[in-house]
Amino acid sequence: MTMVDVAIVDYGMGNLRSVEQALRHVAPTASIVVTDDATVIEQAGRVVFPGQGAMPDCMRELDARGLRSAVIHASRSKPFLGICIGLQMLFQHSAEGDVPGLGVLQGEVLRFAANMQDVAGQKLKVPHMGWNQVRRIEQSASGQGDAPLVPAPLEGGRLGRGVHPLWDGIEQDARFYYVHSYYVKPENAGLIQATSDYPEPFVCAVAQENLFAVQFHPEKSQAAGLKLLQNFVHWNP
Amino acid sequence: MLAKRIIPCLDVTHGRVVKGVSFVELRDAGDPVEIARRYDEQGADELTFLDITASSDDRGIIFRIIEQVASQVFIPLTVGGGVREVGDVRNLLNAGADKVSINTSAVVNPQLVADAASRYGSQCIVVAIDAKQVSPGNWEVFTHGGRKATGLDVVEWAKKMQLLGAGEILLTSMDRDGQKNGFDLALTRRVTDALEIPVIASGGVGNLQHLADGVTQGGADAVLAASIFHFGEYTVQQAKQFMAAKGIEVRL
């Protein structure tokens, strides 16, 4: 079997075409496959783990295809990008359907509160749908443990010391496209790479060694999203 | 802060973008792929394609258009028109749509909305409602391109669709569509206040103030317009700058 550069994990939930198209656009010569074959995932150079729909269904379908251990192994061993539910599934537990996740990361998945309002008193809808600003967090030298939940903005939107390489070339507060009703709450604040406000800050990107995962959809976030995907396909953690 | 979305709408028939007045009198506006690319460059937040004939001969055309657009334009794409069963939803998603809009079939078979949402997730199911005022403060749902009255109250219907799993409501005022005298703001406000899910206001935009009014007075989460963009009156970027100047959060 020819080794693939990027395997997009297909566990039968939702549409992976957009993720595939965007990756092909940023890496036209790479071998990119959408696959439900554990062997292909295990042998791929890097893995993208997307997800749409409800978390209980996603967990069930992942197991029905026997992909759990391949995904967990990939998340610990090679460049790995979780997107949307693919971020949420990495955690220990989700309030959506009260189900356990893969437990790769410590923490839980919670639902946005009902009846939220913005500063002008307008109702904030759930799902959180549309383009929101992503505020990167500058990591400490140790990279663990002491990052605040609400980070100080970086000067002039430039890449600061310790900013994760997947943000390379992306402006501070760049807008990305979201559609979700649940968000992750990691136990270890040192994992947090970025937050967005709705209306309170919530975690929209986490990283741990070879793993990076985002709540927004880079494949649908025009130039900023394509840049993040391009950074991912060139990332060597 | 979450930005309010501006969504150009491309009504497609026989492979061309067209625009009518109150759902009739079609005028040609050009090639859908080319127009989609132009709006993406101008900063459109999403694009909506409505296959307005949706006859069986035309189905292949819309799939090819979506495939071409999806390979070049990396923002959310919604496709509607002629969606009758879960298989239609699947085929549109496979062609590259991110969301599928269901209108007449939601009325004929509400279970379709529930089935499609549970299979593919609420995030990709938009229910389109064509609304017509029947008495002061009351609007009725119409189907079949606005030709058929249903007897359904718009607000109650929208709430039911939310309950069944719709992720978003595309609300079109038939009274205003193509008239260029602004959204039906009372209708928009009534529906958005009644729902937890986002509402896209549609029908009647003639100038940039109308777009701003849809958000500030109508309470819409997104605004959809067709002819003001198609015929070069305004660019999407101009619309966003206008809204930003009015204090509305937009993606510039």
Outline the structure in words.
The complex is a heterodimer of chains A (237) and B (252). With 237 residues, chain A is an alpha/beta fold. Chain A has a single domain, classed as Rossmann fold (3-Layer(aba) Sandwich). Chain A has 6 helices and 15 strands. Chain A has a 9-stranded mixed beta sheet, sandwiched between helices. Chain A has a 4-stranded mixed beta sheet with strand order 6-5-7-12, with helices on one face. A two-stranded antiparallel sheet of chain A has the order 8-9. In chain A, helix 1 (17-26) packs across helix 6 (222-233). Chain A is globular and about 55 Å long. Chain B is an alpha/beta fold and 252 residues long. Chain B contains 10 helices and 12 strands. Chain B has an 8-stranded parallel beta barrel with strand order 1-4-5-6-7-10-11-12, surrounded by 8 helices. In chain B, a hairpin with a 4-residue loop joins strand 8 (138-143) and strand 9. In chain B, helix 1 runs parallel beside helix 2 (56-70) and helix 8 crosses helix 10 (236-245). The chains are: A alpha/beta (237), B alpha/beta (252). The interface between A and B is large, with 39 and 38 residues.
